[in-house]
Methyltransferase domain-containing protein
Amino acid sequence: MTDHQHTSPVSQATTRYAGEELPFSERDSAHIPGHWLLARLGKRVLRPGGRELTRQMLSHAGIEGHKVVEFAPGLGSTAKEILQHTPASYVGVDEDRKAAAIVDNIVAGTGHAVTAKAQETGLPDDSADVVVGEAMLTMQSDKGKQSIIAEAARLLRPGGRYAIHELGLEPDNLDDETKTLIRKSLARAIKVNARPLTAAEWKALLESEGFEVDWIGSAPMALLDIRRNVADEGIVGVLRILRNLIRDKQARERVMTMKRAFTQYRQHMNGIAVVAHKR
Ligand SMILES: C[S@@+](CC[C@H](N)C(=O)[O-])C[C@H]1O[C@@H](n2cnc3c(N)ncnc32)[C@H](O)[C@@H]1O
């Protein structure tokens, strides 16, 4: 018996993508990290500001003809967008072996993907013109965030650009008590310790590791809104997600809990993207 046969119907329906097995295929819907649950349901855009904010960010990152490293490419949806900007080369760095294999297939011809942590990529100093990372710093502690940003700085040549797209908090003077409530609610819902920051905090963090911020964009945190999903996944993609949700009660309950957490703190959360250059 394979691992798949122990899992719920939805995971049997969508355990493969781009010729590879999806990460966490064997975990049940009640315990899987939120982003992999959504991926298993058929969602491909797994970042808070959606595809449109990604596109704005990439247009400010100056990719054409440059060497790009992407941290945590996940299912390779941004990797595809990056390729459309015709980079000189592309290297994806994902800590999950299955995700790296999916991305490796997607970028074949222009680049490749490696299995490694963004904190310690093993790539050479000054080997990139642009580093891109989405929906991966938020789930780190302050120290973890710092070490990933320091690794981006090590990989980039002076003047090279670092583009991030993460979960933001607003306003900049949001009180600590509300921040803690948001973190606890997110941890319960997505089963990952998410620690979003305000725009001022993201900026200060990047500056502390030797970057200068050139552009900041934002979009509502609408990861589970129907209109955002039609824009990000297309009508066929949304129908696939809904069909999978109907078949999996545990997944439905998880998604409703996530949606409640996102809605409750909607006015204080956003998707934030920043492009900064290495001084
Ligand atoms: C929420 S998804 C983000 C995927 C993609 N960037 C997107 O926006 O759709 C998380 C992905 O980040 C990867 N990841 C998380 N932390 C990482 C780290 N420290 N180093 C490398 N990959 C990481 C996971 O393996 C997974 O593929």
